[in-house]
């Protein structure tokens, strides 16, 4: 157990310092929207994103007076709480630590996005579902806790409704296949109570903002071209893979060939995981594992379909975070229960922790130096209301990689490493009231701060 405690401490440190070496500190376009909503609280002016994550950010901002540090300490607090809770409650501590060696937890807790808080809450929802489905407890505290967490998940990400719908699908199968009246009653109560809460939040949005989930603000979805459908399907299939989530932005033949190679790995991982899932019948926890898998597949299916009808980014590690956590956690629990030796999964977890960390820092930068250069320039633009990156399509920054085995080099354009994107992210975190624009549509250009007006020293 000692080595898992040490690994947990290492993970905590890595997640805390990792974004220091990212050009924008792990702050991206969506982060700026969250910062803007947080700065408007307690009187938000938009429901484009739900208020849960901005409210958490605002709480930490009141302590640190900086949204970068607010997001950083919020993420760190969530990781620490999960580890302490798992250890003190004896809720699969080893499995929980290894869950953090995978791609999802390492990603969502290192940058400023709502998925971190979403999967944090998901972890506790799974705990209370476990108490309901796998433990013979007569208390209803688990029911109220699960229902409350389900509601809060929806206030963090609207896609929480897909977790709810997936749990509803599970309940249908559960009512037909399990005759335990007490468990049936508890699952039904979770769905009814959380459903009422979600409905109440939607009605609040409708009354306050005139829409349920900001659907009138999202714009029209991109044209559904075959290449983007293919990329979405590949991204969704990758949800089963706990460690590898590489997805080049290019649509070249070489890029697609690489993604199909990853798909082959995903299929092998799925078959391997399925072998363990089939053995769950002998553990007395089959209903719990069925719930995890149904949530994973239901969430992934609903999300990819919704992506074709509204303007959201393509399916990737971030979008599939909840699905990946459910499948991976189920596998880890079953692996430790079935296998007598756990050396292999320990070594694999440690290897990928190192690999994913090094990969994310393959082009290390100094966030604090970048911020130091941009911060004094922002005083000249206090009256600007909008922020627009007008440096897209200009002189792109490419990273050169050397492959020693074949002694070849190649260049790759990392979207978030472009100067305009970095300037936009840092400027927006310094002034959270400024609204970033996807398109330069404001008629009064004097109100717009263009990223070309900010500069880095060469």
Automatic annotation (TrEMBL):
Signal peptide segment: none
KW Cell membrane (keyword) present: no
UniProt key word Cell cycle: no
Keywords assigned: Membrane, Transmembrane, Transmembrane helix
TM segment ranges: 7-29, 67-85, 105-130, 142-175, 187-204, 256-276, 291-309, 321-338, 344-361
Name this polypeptide is given: Glycosyltransferase RgtA/B/C/D-like domain-containing protein
UniProt source species: Epilithonimonas pallida
């Amino acid at each position: 157990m000692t080595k898992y405690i040490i690994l947990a401490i290492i993970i905590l440190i890595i997640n805390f310092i990792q974004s220091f070496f990212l050009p924008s500190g792990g702050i991206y376009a969506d982060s700026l929207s969250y910062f803007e909503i947080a700065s408007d609280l307690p009187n938000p002016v938009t429901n484009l994103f739900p208020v849960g994550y901005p409210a958490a950010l605002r709480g930490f901002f009141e302590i640190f007076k900086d949204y970068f540090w607010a997001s950083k300490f919020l993420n760190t607090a969530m990781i620490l709480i999960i580890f302490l809770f798992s250890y003190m409650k004896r809720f699969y501590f080893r499995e929980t630590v290894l869950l953090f060696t995978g791609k999802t937890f390492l990603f969502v807790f290192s940058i400023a996005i709502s998925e971190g808080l979403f999967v944090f809450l998901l972890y506790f929802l799974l705990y209370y579902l476990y108490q309901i489905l796998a433990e013979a407890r007569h208390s209803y505290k688990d029911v109220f806790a699960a229902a409350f967490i389900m509601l809060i998940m929806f206030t963090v990400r609207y896609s929480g409704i897909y977790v709810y719908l997936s749990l509803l699908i599970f309940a249908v199968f559960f009512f037909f296949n399990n005759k335990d009246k007490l468990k049936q009653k508890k699952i039904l109560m979770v769905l009814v109570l959380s459903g009422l809460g979600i409905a109440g939040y939607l009605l609040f949005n409708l009354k306050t903002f005139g829409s349920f989930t900001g659907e009138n603000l999202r714009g029209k979805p991109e044209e559904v071209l075959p290449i983007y459908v293919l990329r979405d399907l590949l991204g969704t299939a990758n949800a089963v893979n706990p460690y590898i989530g590489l997805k080049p932005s290019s649509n070249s033949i070489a890029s697609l060939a690489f993604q199909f190679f990853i798909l082959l790995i995903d299929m092998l991982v799925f078959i391997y995981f399925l072998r363990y899932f089939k053995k769950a019948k002998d553990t007395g926890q089959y209903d719990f594992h069925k719930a995890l898998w149904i949530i994973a597949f239901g969430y992934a299916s609903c999300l990819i379909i919704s992506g074709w009808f509204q303007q959201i980014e393509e399916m990737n590690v971030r979008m599939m975070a909840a699905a990946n956590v459910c499948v991976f956690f189920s596998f880890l629990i079953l692996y430790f229960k079935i296998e007598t030796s756990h050396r292999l999964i320990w070594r694999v977890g440690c290897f990928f922790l190192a690999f994913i960390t090094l990969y994310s820092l393959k082009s290390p930068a100094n966030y604090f130096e970048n911020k130091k250069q941009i911060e004094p320039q922002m005083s000249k633009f206090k009256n600007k209301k909008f922020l627009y990156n007008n440096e897209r399509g200009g002189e792109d920054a490419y990273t050169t990689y050397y492959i020693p085995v074949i002694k070849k080099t190649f260049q790759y354009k990392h979207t978030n490493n472009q100067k305009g994107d970095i300037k936009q992210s840092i400027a927006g975190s310094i002034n959270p009231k400024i609204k970033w624009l996807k398109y330069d549509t404001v008629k009064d250009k004097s109100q717009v701060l263009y990223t070309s007006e900010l500069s880095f020293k060469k």
